[in-house]
Amino acid sequence: MSRSDTVLLTQWLDGLTTQQRSSNTIKAYQRDVSQLLVFLQSEKNGIDDLEPHAIENTYYFIQLNREALTRYAGFRMEEGGLAPSSLQRELSAIRHFASWLVEQHILAHNPAQDFTINRPPRPLPSTMDAEIVQQLLDQPAPEDRDEARLWVRDRAMLELLYGSGLRLSELADLTLPMLDLGRKLVTVTGKGRKTRILPIGSKALIALQEWLPHRALWAEEGVLHVFVSERRGESLHPRTIERRVSHQALRAGIAQHLHPHLLRHCFATHLLAGSGDLRAVQELLGHANISTTQIYTHLDFEHLTKVYDQAHPRARK
Fold it and tell me: Is 167 a residue of the active site?
């Protein structure tokens, strides 16, 4: 075989780049498939410990079949200590690569296509009562002048996280052109580069209108991000946003650990409890599969029981 495994891997990754896949996705795919290649080479050569840099320009992917995948999955979980969820992510990359090998007539079929492992039940996301969220958002401003200004910014972030259900990355990447305050809308680009338009609640609108004049004084020239740091005027790093959310929760006297994604969970749970419209919540969250959204139906048994009692013919007296 004239083409080596490493050349094939490079060609596949180059193709992903032209498809405008994110750099993080491409790096993860390269790492995951390279680990499989190392495993296949070690099996072929009878080597127990083979480093990635020791990969030779030899054709090993021809050995890829269901039996090899089974051995690899066991190796990654037993020797690598990989959790089933992490292994599923690696198998997704391998599945994509094997499909490309089929297209290139390297493999006759994709052995990873229907390959699955047993996964533990998905844990339910944590959430908070609406009253506690109100306690967070309606707390008074700090007496310290500098901290009070930071609270103006942080409150706008908190209102968007809870009021529009933004992901942390979506909030960090938010720029001024994405805001349409006149129509009370915000446009975000989420997972898979999918764009969705979300409503801005009245409380979030007020918080943004109070924050933007401060932002104009803080932001460096050319910076379009909505949320910037007070010192350098640069866009806020996601880790900084996490710290600020946690700080404001502690200031409000909330004992539960608060992080941005928890506010997204609260958004989904409280909206579903108030509306019962699963499809609408799915669209607002940007979930590709409604089964992902359905996890929130388990978080409000009282509401679901009430809906059942009122709606089902065999439940009514």
Answer: yes
